[in-house]
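Q: Could you fold this chain for me?
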Amino acid sequence: MGLMNTKRDVNYIVNRLNELAYTTRDADLSLLAQQASIELVRLNAEVTKHAPAEPVITDIKHLPEIPVTDEQGDGIPTLECEKATVFKVDYNDLDEFLSEVYGIQFEIVAEEELNNYSDKSITVESEQMDEYWQARFKEGRYDTRSLMNQACYDGLLEPGEYVIHIFW
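A: Sure. Below is the predicted structure, expressed as structure tokens.
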């Protein structure tokens, strides 16, 4: 169990280093992340070497039956959903874009009071900023949706669903 916990911890650290190296574009962090990835591969090999052999099912007759109905005799439930196209964007990239386009110091995390390791979904439509947000804009207060809608109206963004990934 000790090796499994160590492997999980190293995997977590490798993921965080990779994300940090990517967002900061830091070469030293990138090198550290690569070294940690190598260590993770070594740990995987070590865990595999000491792990008990997994049973292999060689005969299909030994597979468990998949029920066609639930206990009430109804069919197995299905999840009703539809596919959607979304635009994924890193919060730093959005901050830089809106700051440059509108000549402001925009920070979505502060404006929207967002948490680390979260996503913010915004539906962007081509419409001008309304009078309320225009007045707030002049005061230095910003609304992400209004700014993005204005950018779409100005032809700088496509309309659609934007998912902003927050990680620092």
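A (continued): Residues 2-50 form one domain.
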